[in-house]
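Why do we bother with holo predictions? Because pocket geometry can differ from the apo form. Keep that in mind while you read this record for FE2/S2 (inorganic) cluster.
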Amino acid sequence: MDTAVPLATDPRPAVDWLDVCAVDDVPLQGARVIRRPRGADVALFRSAAGGVFALLDRCPHKGGPLSQGIVYGERVACPLHNWSIGLVDGQAAAPDVGCARPFAVRVADGRVWMDAAELRAAD
Ligand code: FES
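The structure, written out:
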C-alpha cells in the first residue's frame, strides 16, 4: 500500500481572524483601543496614508499609552516622554531601545481583522 507524503507542510496553525471594527472606526492619524479579556489593551493605529497597524498599548519605555500618542508617517510619538515607536514593528527609534509588541492585523472589505488567538492570550 502506498502512502502519499506531502513534500512540505506548513507548521503554522491557520489564523482565526476576528472582525474587530470598521476601518473608518479608526481615525486617520489616530488610534482606537481594543480591550482584551485577559491581556493588556491593544492600540489600533491608522496612518495618514490609510495603513492600519496594531501594537500593545504600552510604551516600551515606562508603559505610556501609545494610543494617546501622535501618529506621524508610520510612527507614533509616546505621549509621556516622546519616544518614537515604529507602527510596523513596534521598535523604538535610536538612541532609545525597546519594542512595543506588534499584533497581526489585516484589512479586507473595509473591516479590520485581528488574530483571535493573540487577542485572547493573557500576555
Ligand atoms: S513611557 Fe513612552 S516615552 Fe516614556
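The chain has one helix and nine strands.
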